[in-house]
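Can you make up a polypeptide sequence alongside its tokenized fold?
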Amino acid sequence: MGCRFSGYTPDLVTIGAEYCDVISYNRYAFTTDSVILPEGVDKPVMIGEFHFGALDRGIFHCSQVEVETQEKRGEAYVRYVESALRHPQIIGVHWHQYSDQATTGRFDGEDFQVGFTDVCDTPYPETVAALRKVGYGMYDYRKNN
């Protein structure tokens, strides 16, 4: 597995595919439908980062992909993971990150409300419910879609 592509060209992906068993992308979007490998590349794909954030509670900066509420955040999670489960080349997705970032920011100032838990380790129930909804049925969903 090579680097996680966040910015790339088809030529870079093609070259990377020569040396990697799995192509990995950071894909901040509402679905994985736009994940298309360059012509001639047939490799499994791992989504190394994705997330959604909302400002209805928690810290003050929502994320790279904003939704209106925590309920919408859970719905976005389900939509994203189900799109990955339908994608024939995607073998997994990885949420960035477990807990919200500190309001004061990390080393580079990033201070996103993107966790499954807030900065006090309190879970966002709507997101956890979405995780369970997808997780409990993902093998059947992949098999049947």
Summary: The chain is about 30% helix and 10% strand. Strands lie at 4-5, 23-26, 45-50, 90-95. The chain has a mean pLDDT of 92.
